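#structure-requests
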Amino acid sequence: MGNKKKRLTAPRSFRFKVIFISIICLVIPATITLFIYNYLTKDTLKEQALSNANRELTIANEYVEKLLEDMLYITNFIQLDAEMNTILKEKASSDKEPTKDYQKFIDESKINKTIENITLVGEKSYVTILLKNGKSYTNYSYWDYDPSKLLREDWVESLNKLKGYESVWIGSMPTRFKSEKKNNPYQITVARTLRDENLKVYGYVLVTIMENKINQIFENMDGHEDMMILNSSNQIISHRDDSRIGEVFQYSDQLKEDNSSNIFQISQKDYLIAEHKIDFTGWKLVSLVPYKQAVNKINSIFNKVFVVQIVSFTAFLVLMAYSLRTITKPIVHLGNIAEAVKRGNLAIRSRIKSRDEVGRLSDSFDHMLDRVNEMIQEITDTQERKRKAELDMLQAQINPHFLFNVLNSIRMKVLVKGDKESADMISSLSKLLRMTIDKNKETITFREEVQIVLDYINIMNMRQKEKVEVEIDVHEEAYSLMIPRFILQPIIENSIIHGLNQSAGKIVVTTDLREEQLVIIIQDNGQGMDMASLNALRKKLIQTNGTENSHNKRNKGFSSLGLSNVYERMFITFGKSFKMDIESLPGEGTKVILTIQEGGNISDVQSNAS
């Protein structure tokens, strides 16, 4: 158990972390998305089910209204046809038959022909024109039904109360026609009054259809809704099941408002109910269907989409894991190379050949190893040259302590005798000797180096017949620069001995603070050099940083150190941020330019030297 826990908590590889994080970043959003999708799908299913129920009911309502409007069309035609109304009024106003049988035949033919014409189009309907005097005109036979019996119906009284073009819709009642009773137990009728110019009712027009015509509309619908028509009292007047006609719809309290739909429960099962009002009848069309049945088709589509998403997610997850493993393989290889380098193998190389970031990282890593090996070699060579340069410095010190003490004693005796000039010369010499024996001062300030130059020129002027003039023009900021000691002195020495040929002349030491660099310029007005000599001197400076030893490049002078030694010590101190150049023309003097770029941090140099 303990070993298993340790394996679970052990550090993981980079590849494992990338794959794990990628999977987590994929699984979590996908899980949240699927959860939200499932949550929102429920609302969408509900909305879609309600929408489908309303759509199905709207379609059914259009068919039902079309059927009922055809019935109204017949009543409107009879009520508004002038010729027919003229004949009917004459028939209703007299109890006697016309004197001419021919005219009677013509009038009845016109009425019957008109009724036949207006019932040719649409569903079969039974038209009855019933006058108050008992006369009637129909498109059916008196054997099928005696229209005079209609005057004994209960709804006749309400019919007399109508005004204008108002209609009475008589809901489903038992079929009165003998030919229809067997197959169609119920009929639906619309009735209107016929009035004369004084608005007095002289007759009635009734249009009847069989209730099964509406049932056929319900059965032809694609859905599985239980559709019905309710009257204003919520009684069923049309239903697929004839036995339910006349019942009061028991869920009428679930009908919220006209043309709406909602979901309610019956015996802990959800049902969807929807309604549409048939405006000109006062009836309403209602559908009732179990909720699961309503959403079954939609839910099936959503489930298929969900399965496709799961399969796609799984396939993408496998593909992503494989791709990440392929992508991270070079990184794992690079990690193994780094581990080998850590163990000390600097000869190994990754050699990953690709054009992406990993390839560039591998190339940089290989170049870094090459550069590390080069730097190790450079440091080894530099330390060797530095050791030899220090040895040269030590060889230049001929018992300096003893010599310094003797010179100091001589200076005091000369000063006592009043020879101040000789005493100053000895003092300058003593300062130079003090600087050579101070091993703790590998680097000094530029101000101290300038003072060494002044002491050196003071000594040289006492030795020579003709004096050398020196001019110092240094920025105050440059005085604090830390440089190796005895850098300017060998250059000044070369200017006096070789440039001025130990004759009178002028040496100018200046500094120039340029952008991100300090430039030190030592210039004399001596005899200068031709191009061949100048190129030879420059070549020696370039070779100084190579394989040649500094003790093979000595020039004569106070410190026995020439320009090559100066260049080498400055390069050791400042590295590649230091540059040295020489400019000269015959008869115009020589100029030595020392440039220190930004990056040659003197504080680091001083700490390394100490």
